[in-house]
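Researcher: Please translate sequence to structure tokens.
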Amino acid sequence: MTVTTIRKFWVSALSMLLPVLAWMAPVDALAQKKLKVAAVFETPIEEPWVNQIHVALKKAEQELGIEYQWSESVKSADFARVMREYAEGGYDLIMGDSFGAERIARRVARDYPNVAFTFGSGIGPAEPNFAVFDNWIHEPAYLAGMIAGKLTKSNTVGAVAAMTIPEVNRLCNAFCAGAKEVNEAVKCKFSFIGSFFDPPKAKEAALAQIEQGVDVIYAERFGVIEAAAERNIAAIGNMSDQWELGPKSVVTSVVWDMWPTVKQVINQVQAGVFTSQDFGQFSFMGKGGSFLAPYHEWDATLSAEIKDMVAARRQEILDGTFRAPIDESAPKSE
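Model: Translation complete:
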């Protein structure tokens, strides 16, 4: 092979390689860039619903190497401004809760098509960059209801919740359905405080239910467990493992684990394949997004019958042989 032939070969090879290297360069740069993620929350971080998102994003900060900032207690009048500040500050992904600011959040997202937005929402996603999620934790709520149905001595169980919106209704209805499955004599009572975060009002509503004979109560909102502890009745926590709020009262908690959702969203943004979609499936038990918390101090109190019953139904849910009912109609007290 002559020197001229060799030179022609390398020139040809290099001409084919250069476009590949040029294509790989920005991809490699993207891989090296630290993903900037922000969260905008309508309520304080201590409110269990947003706290679960916050906890998952803090975990992502440690395990996925993201840069994370957040704003809490953001009123509707300030929601757009805070979102825009993050979008214009170079953040790649903005998350949060938008139930009280649906129109605002979606309008801002349209103005920043190159930023990924993923918000808790009762409405579907919107093209091209507004994805949604929700706390689809009706399955463990059903299991908790089964426990309540077996524990009640008055045959009256209750739930104190935020307001009659689909995502709240389905939890209360699932809880009641679980109780009725194992105890046909059970009556369910419901109270709605008209707020996502008002512990004193939730406690007051719980005390009123206890006066009406409720002896097992589902604390869908913060403040209920305090009432249960004062009156020495059984309680079911919600969103996180709330055992420490009333160790002798909290039998278990309906836990929402946002990690599967957050991990999926971040992985998609990092890979450049994020689309406007509904990530709700990642809150289901089968995806690891929800479960019943340990029984803690109640572990020695609950009968083997109750534990086995719950374990068997849990496995049926995971196997897909049992579907917890999804009833989003407004529940009514009996």
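Researcher: Any highlights?
Model: The longest strand covers residues 250-256.
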